[in-house]
């Protein structure tokens, strides 16, 4: 519903500014070509995007997800001290984080929800500290190879669509760290209130 | 750095192929099956993009986007964020395909390798659709008291945006 409002407001603002700036003719032309550019974008990014979902499928079938999961498990235990000994929850969390790292969004969400279910059993209706941490970590992007964005970049004519990788890694690391620190800090503050 | 990232692509292709062969996976067929998943992703975002790109193109043509960038420019420049990306900051936490459409339009307008185009790409790559994710998770397990999840997640987004702008300046 929020998007409906945003969309209507966007169209309304275009008309208002078009009228104010005398650019109504341009606005009208843009209304006719916008949909076309959406299709053009999708066509131009289809190739690289499909290639990468293919490569990721090969990695997944070769057991990449399980391997990564096993490596991450000990580290993640520290983030969720309350569930450190809970194998089912910790397994879902590790698999969720691994799927997020590999950019398997369709696999990551069910795994994360599975972990969230296990956590919510202990405190029904209220988000525990662990559940807040899980959700915050899932709202921060940790995808190692942002394939969709790279596909958009090559669609827009970039010759080196993947050269943003180091910047993406650095920014993602900062963002996730900030989320984790904020969750930790707020966990303390909220208890006092 | 550019030599390394040039090796990365073919390197990943080879590594995935070899890993698959070692586990006796039918690599070529799996690649094709996986490519189908890409098509279903496209099929999911295309209908959303039709309406969004129309609205975004209209906003661009009306001069609103330039006006907003000019209005908020000084404040954004102060923290190092290119003013052209102002719309992205607002839409990113709410709509994934909306942000993708806006980012794509931005890259087409200013060029994918411009400062604004690169920053937009890094912002998209290092943040998530926060509100959507929160509602999916808490909705799925019936949580009503979300406590500090929203403010903490927004902290991560804010730092992500700032770090994206900062990282692009650092690397390019």
Q: How is this structure best summarized?
A:
The complex is a heterodimer of chains A (193) and B (172). Chain A is mainly α and 193 residues long.
Topology of helices and strands:
The complex is a heterodimer of chains A (193) and B (172).
Chain A: H1 2-21, H2 24-61, H3 64-79, H4 87-102, H5 105-120, H6 129-139, H7 147-155, H8 165-192
Helix pairs in contact in A: 1-2, 2-7, 3-4, 4-5, 5-6, 6-8
Chain B: H1 2-22, H2 27-62, H3 64-78, H4 86-91, H5 96-110, H6 115-126, H7 130-140, H8 149-171
Helix pairs in contact in B: 2-5, 5-6, 6-8
Mean pLDDT of chain A, nearest integer? 91
Secondary structure: number of strands of chain B: 0
Mean pLDDT of chain B: 91
Q: What portion of the residues of chain A fall into strands of 2 or more residues?
A: under 5%
> How many domains of chain A, as an integer?
1
Helix/strand order of chain B, N-terminal first: HHHHHHHH
Calculate the terminal CA-CA distance of chain A, rounded to whole Å. Answer: 33 Å
Main sheet attributes: strand count, strand direction, barrel closure of chain B: none
Low-confidence stretches of chain B: none
Biggest pleated-sheet summary of chain A:
none
Question: In terms of structural class, how would the helical and strand content of chain A be classed?
Answer: mainly alpha
Judged by helices, strands and strand pairing, the structural class of chain B is mainly alpha
Q: Tell me the Rg of chain A in angstroms.
A: 21 Å
Total helices of chain A: the number is 8
What is the count of structural domains of chain B? 1
Shape of chain A: globular
Largest interface: A-B, 101 and 107 residues
Beta strands of chain A, count:
0
Q: Give the helix proportion of chain A (percent range).
A: over 70%
Radius of gyration of chain B: 19 Å
In percent, how helical is the residue content of chain B?
A: over 70%
